[in-house]
Amino acid sequence: MTPTVGLRRAAPVVTLCLLAGCASVTRTPAIGPSAPAAPATSAPAGSPVAGALPSIPRAVAAAPKVDAPVRSEARVTLAAVGDVLMHDAVKRAAEARRADAPDGGYAWLFAPIADLLGAADLTFANLETPIAPQASQGSRAFVFNAPPAVIAALQRAGVDLVSVANNHAMDQGRRGFEETLRWLRSAGLPYVGAGPAPRAAGPVRLERNGLSLAFLGYTYGLNQGGNACPPAAAACEQVAELDRARMVEDVRAAAAAADAVVVSVHWGVEYQQAPRADEVELAHRLADAGALVVLGHHPHVLQPIELYRRPDGRTAVIAYSLGNFVSNQSRNYVAGVTPDAVAATRDGALLRVTLARRDYGRGVEEVEVAGADFLPLWTENDTVEIDRRKEPARRPAIRVVAVDRALASVRAELAALPDPLPEADRARYVALRRREELYLARRAAVAGVMGEDLLRTLGPAELAGPEAPAPAAPAAAPPPARAAPAAATPSAAP
Fold first, then answer.
1. 215 SS3 class
2. CA distance linking residue 292 with residue 216, whole number of Å
3. For residue 380, how many other CB atoms are within 10 A of its CB?
4. How many angstroms separate the CA atoms of 326 and 398, rounded?
5. How far is residue 330's CA from residue 324's CA, in Å, rounded to a whole number?
6. CB 358 within 8 A of CB 365
7. 451: helix, coil or strand?
């Protein structure tokens, strides 16, 4: 080894010094072949140590350049929920709370989670109903309509953007579709997935915190006809229907002009909790073309979230289905009795995606996903608890809650009960334990479908819940329809 070589070379010097009566000197052996021991020389006058080896200069390696830490220059939090289904029972539940909540009682539907929706910089929902009181042809099973108060309630709850590209967009015919868009414009609620042909999909561009977001929306099809432009129409708005090649080109063009692209797609098989292969393939193509977020809906149940690595190294968040946000589906579900899969249409999720412009230094900046998670939601519905013979006037209580909050509330009530339990409290205690079991089961079910890794847990401050809704504001009337009969033009919110 090298140290041994150094010691052997130094040995004659040490021997001579011993014979000559020199002072004892300790020497450090050479380390490595690049630093051999030098031959002995006579020390100049004034040398501190007689007979010492001269010092050997060593090369000092240049310190590597250290770049500045990566910085986030701008951040936007995007939240998203699924289908807003205004079944007749949901509307009756809202209208029964007119005295307790603004927007004709519709704010009551979303009040338990309004603060969570509003906490994001931008919140999205799929508006799966026309808003067409003037063009109404009636509502029935699978044919929807709702009053403009729904728009006001969604805005009050924190929703900033809706998609109207879904199979129910033409439920009230072309006049109802056009009226819906007028109500949305009048309320100042941006929408995606409908607009002037041939650019009906968008993009709709919104600015938040210094980032430009481009939204596109599409649906697989429509339940009713009427999407074709009338032959004599000088201008026409349409619902954007799914065209794979066109979608990819739309995303690519939008990505070239915006910091981030978000795509809303109404697709999939109803009540299936996994996407089909062709939906996965399309989602990947959209991401490869430049989308950072893909928001799926239509199956009415949740499907997984995929974190997809794009060819450029950035990650796209793909939520294949966000399930129902509010509906009257599975109204007859009885926890612990009805098959568990029946409850899936009442499960929901609040997806949260953080987008950030990150400065990597040396002139390199990227807008990318900087966080993603989801919060389990549940649609409360007490239909099965109503005895129609004894309570003929009672309306079902249907509203959306955060599972964590509902669970915390039940546990607080349980903790307040005495132990041992008085006979008078037994029924209440059992009912509370059943609800605790329900919320635990729904939380686990949502996490099992969407992915445990992204499950969000509310902290102590968030568990407290929102404050009561603010007083109602007067609703604005939409502007007159272009070249439409007077009867089709709403003059005031009902």
1. strand
2. 12
3. 15
4. 8
5. 11
6. yes
7. coil
DSSP notation for 333-378: --TTTS-GGGGGGGEEEEEEEEEEEEEEETTEEEEEEEEEEEEEEE
The residues near 202 (Cβ < 8 Å, ≥ 6 apart) are: 192, 193, 195, 214, 215, 216, 217, 240, 250, 254
Kindly report the length of the chain: 494
Q: What is the DSSP pairing of strand 324-326 with strand 305-309?
A: unpaired
Q: Nearest Cα to 123, choosing from 202, 196, 213, 250? A: 213
Share of the chain above pLDDT 70, in %: 82
Decide: residue 195, CB within 10 A, 0-12 exposed, 13-18 middle, 19+ buried.
buried
Residue type at position 172: Q
3-state helix, strand, coil in the chain (%, to 5): 30, 25, 45
Bridge partners, 165 (sequence order): none
In angstroms, what CA-CA distances link 10 with 24, 50, 52? 13, 15, 11
Q: pLDDT-derived band of residue 467, with 50, 70 and 90 as boundaries?
A: low
Higher pLDDT, 134 or 20: 134
Distance CA 100, CA 77 (A): 31
Q: What is the largest CA-CA distance in the chain?
A: 124
Structure tokens at 157: 């709850």
Q: Is residue 116 classed as helix, strand or coil in its secondary structure?
A: helix
3-class SS at 293?
strand
In a 10 Å sphere around its CB, with 0-12 CB exposed, 13-18 middle and 19+ buried, how is residue 167 labelled? Answer: middle
Q: What is the mean pLDDT of the chain?
A: 87
Whether the Cβ atoms of residue 222 and residue 201 lie closer than 8 Å to each other? no
Who's near 72: CB < 8 A, 6+ residues apart? Answer: 356, 357, 358, 359, 370
Distance between CA atoms of residues 324 and 380, nearest Å: 12
Under the banding of pLDDT at 50, 70 and 90, the label for residue 20 is very low
State the pLDDT confidence band at 72, using cuts at 50, 70 and 90.
confident
Q: Are 250 and 201 in contact (CB under 8 A)?
A: yes
**Burial class for 430, CB neighbours closer than 10 Å (0-12, 13-18, 19+):** exposed
Residue 322 near residue 302 (C-beta atoms within 8 A): yes
User: Is the model's pLDDT at 428 over the cut of 50?
Assistant: yes
CA dist., res. 10 & res. 22, Å (int): 15
Mean pLDDT computed over 473-488? 45
Rounded to whole angstroms, the Cα distance separating 247 from 240 reads: 10
pTM of the model: 0.82
